[in-house]
Structures are given as structure tokens and as C-alpha cells.
């Protein structure tokens, strides 16, 4: 019995580490988005999204379904690096909905010579085949 108690006490400080791993991975995913955007690389930016026809992106024009349609919309809306500007995210909330699914809320800001843009976003992020991917994005 003492051995069991000893093992529980020994491993207790590490119990929180497992819960933090998804948060770190999701923050890294958002950092990859930021870096890719700021390099003008929409294809790399889109690699953080689920490459599926079931991906949903909701913007000011309503929902867009599918990875390719979302990429096409980004390319139309941001045809060059002047239009893209420099992206910055401010995370406001991260909540686990399940071990493999997280809800993220934040603010985005584009610093641009042609005029800044900003708004809020909510993301549904899911671990798919070992990788965290955005499966739903509502940005306004």
C-alpha cells in the first residue's frame, strides 16, 4: 500500500503536464499560421487547416465549405503581401471540449500600409491522425 501511495505522490506533479501539451501544440499551430502569413505564404498558412471538404470557414460573407474553397477565398481577398500585411494574434481563451478537440477564441490584427484590419475569431481545433488541425474557423 505504501508503494502505491509513493507512486501516486511521485507522479502527481507531472499530471498537469499532459493537459498542457495540447495547449502548447495549439499555440505552435497558431504561431505557424502567423509566421506563414507574415512571409506571404498562404499555402503554408492553410497547412494548419483540415484538408477536407468538411472544413468550414465563416467570415463576413457567410460560410465557405472545404479546404480548397477557403484557400481560394484567401487568395482572392489577399492577392499580395501589401493586402496581407503583418498578422498578430491575441489569444483570449482556450478550452478543451474533449481530449482531442479544443475551442479557441482570440483577436486578430493585420498591420498594413493600405489600412489596418482587425477582428475576432473562434476556432475548433481537433487532433487528426496525430496532428492538430483547424476544422472550423469563424473570423469577423
From TrEMBL:
Residues 26-134 form the DUF4440 domain. It holds the Pfam family DUF4440. The keyword Signal applies. Residues 1-19 form the signal peptide. The keyword Nucleotidyltransferase does not apply. Keywords: Signal. This is DUF4440 domain-containing protein. It comes from Chitinophaga pinensis (strain ATCC 43595 / DSM 2588 / LMG 13176 / NBRC 15968 / NCIMB 11800 / UQM 2034). The lineage of its organism: Bacteria, Pseudomonadati, Bacteroidota, Chitinophagia, Chitinophagales.
Amino acid at each position: 500500500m505504501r508503494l502505491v501511495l509513493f507512486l501516486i505522490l511521485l507522479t502527481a506533479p507531472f499530471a498537469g503536464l499532459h493537459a498542457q501539451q495540447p495547449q502548447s501544440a495549439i499555440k505552435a499551430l497558431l504561431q505557424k499560421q502567423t509566421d506563414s502569413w507574415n512571409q506571404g505564404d498562404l499555402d503554408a498558412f492553410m497547412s494548419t487547416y483540415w484538408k477536407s471538404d468538411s472544413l468550414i470557414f465563416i467570415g463576413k460573407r457567410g460560410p465557405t465549405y472545404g479546404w480548397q474553397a477557403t484557400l481560394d477565398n484567401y487568395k482572392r481577398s489577399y492577392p499580395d503581401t501589401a493586402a496581407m500585411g503583418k498578422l498578430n494574434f491575441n489569444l483570449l481563451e482556450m478550452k478543451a471540449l474533449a481530449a482531442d478537440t479544443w475551442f479557441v477564441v482570440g483577436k486578430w490584427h493585420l498591420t498594413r500600409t493600405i489600412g489596418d484590419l482587425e477582428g475576432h475569431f473562434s476556432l475548433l481545433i481537433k487532433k487528426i491522425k496525430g496532428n492538430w488541425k483547424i476544422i472550423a474557423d469563424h473570423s469577423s
